[in-house]
Amino acid sequence: MSATPVHPHQHEEDDCGRVLTHLNDYIDDKLSPELCAELEAHLAQCENCRVVFDTLNQTLYLVHQLRETPPELPETVAYRLFAVMNLQQFIPKKKG
Amino acid sequence: MTGIEIDLDIYPDEASLLQGLKRGDPEACACMIKQYAPRVYAIAIRMVNDRDEAEEVLQETFISACKNINRFEGRSALGTWLHRIATNAALMHLRKRKNREVSLDAPVEMYGGDDVYREVKDWAFSPDDHAMNSETRDMLEKAISELPETLRTVFILREIEGYSTEETANILGISVSAAKVRLHRARLRLRQSLAPYFIQPA
Question: Which of B69, B92, B169, B201 is positioned for an S-S bond with B179, CB 3.0–4.6 A?
Answer without folding.
Answer: B169
